[in-house]
């Protein structure tokens, strides 16, 4: 079953603007990870935030985590055309093995 | 450094035919291995995971099966494919926290 739900499902912005994507989940997590998928390709890991962290940065990426609201957000600043991709949040559950449970993703389009 | 290989990259198979997708990981030992499937325009669904040789856990009932004959080899199989088995199949591995994905196999069942 799906755990994470991204919002919005699709987002289209102009190059240079900031893009914000949100993710909500249902159960307690060990950590939460964001991935990017270019069309027809495999997933690329972007950033991991632990359940005891509230914010994390990596280059132009900023991730927040609110465990009380069971939600996370991914902010991409100063977007570029190359940022066009689908973005997924994945919650990590430890049940015998570490399992990633993915949402449906947000399709981000950066218009030049 | 660790790398993950999947093959083939694309596959077109008729309904009722068998399936074998292979995944191998290099540069690590005793990783957790995973098979995910992604339907068109959708998120990823975890199909199987393995914590060691011969240890397979199934997440959803289906006509697929998985095997791990060697530490760094994970195989996804089916005896008879269904149309609904079409999708993008991704193998992944992890040792600690971050899960790394292979390039995927796009399967079309006709």
- SSE series of chain B: EEEEEEEEEEE
* Total of helices of chain B: 0
Mean pLDDT of chain A: 90
How many strand elements of chain B? Answer: 11
What does the overall shape of chain B look like?
globular
Describe the largest sheet of chain A: 6 strands, mixed
Main interface by residue count: A-B, 25 and 26 residues
Please state roughly what percent of the residues of chain B sit in beta strands, choosing from under 5%, 5-15%, 15-25%, 25-35%, 35-45% or over 45%: over 45%
Gap between N and C termini of chain A: 37 Å
Tell me what the structure shows:
The complex is a heterodimer of chains A (112) and B (110). Chain A has 112 residues and is mainly beta. Chain A contains no helices and eleven strands. Chain A is 0% helix and 61% strand. The model of chain A has no long low-confidence stretch (mean pLDDT 90). Chain B is mainly β and 110 residues long. In chain B, 0% of the residues lie in helices and 59% in strands. Chain B has strands at 3-7, 10-13, 19-26, 32-38, 44-52, 55-58, 64-70, 73-78, 87-94, 100-101, 105-109. In chain B, strands 2, 4, 5, 6, 9, 10 and 11 form a seven-stranded mixed β-sheet that branches. A four-stranded antiparallel β-sheet of chain B has the order 1-3-8-7, with no helix packed on it. In chain B, β9 (87-94) and β10 form a beta hairpin. In chain B, 35% of the residues are buried. The chains are: A mainly beta (112), B mainly beta (110). Chain A binds chain B through residues 2, 4, 31, 33, 35, 40-45, 48, 88, 90, 92, 96-105, and chain B through 32, 34, 36, 42-46, 49-51, 57, 59, 88, 90, 92, 94, 97-104, 106.
């Amino acid at each position: 079953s799906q755990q994470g739900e991204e919002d919005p499902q699709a987002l289209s912005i102009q190059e240079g603007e900031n893009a914000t994507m949100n993710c909500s989940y249902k159960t307690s997590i060990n950590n939460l990870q964001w991935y990017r998928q270019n069309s027809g390709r495999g997933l690329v890991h972007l950033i991991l935030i632990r359940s005891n962290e509230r914010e994390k940065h990596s280059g132009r990426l900023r991730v927040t985590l609110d465990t009380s609201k069971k939600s996370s957000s991914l902010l991409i600043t100063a977007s570029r055309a190359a940022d066009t991709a689908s973005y997924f949040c994945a919650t990590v559950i430890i049940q015998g093995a570490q399992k990633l449970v993915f949402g449906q993703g947000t399709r981000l389009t950066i218009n030049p | 450094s660790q790398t993950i290989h999947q093959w083939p990259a694309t596959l077109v198979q008729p309904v009722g035919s068998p399936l074998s997708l292979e995944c191998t990981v290099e540069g690590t030992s005793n990783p957790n291995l995973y098979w995910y499937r992604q339907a068109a325009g959708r998120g990823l669904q975890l199909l199987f995971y393995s914590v060691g040789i011969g240890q397979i856990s199934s997440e959803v009932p289906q006509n697929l099966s998985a095997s791990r004959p060697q530490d760094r080899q994970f195989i996804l199989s089916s005896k008879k494919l269904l149309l609904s088995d079409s999708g993008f199949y991704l193998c992944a591995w992890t040792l600690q926290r971050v899960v790394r994905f292979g390039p995927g196999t796009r399967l079309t069942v006709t």
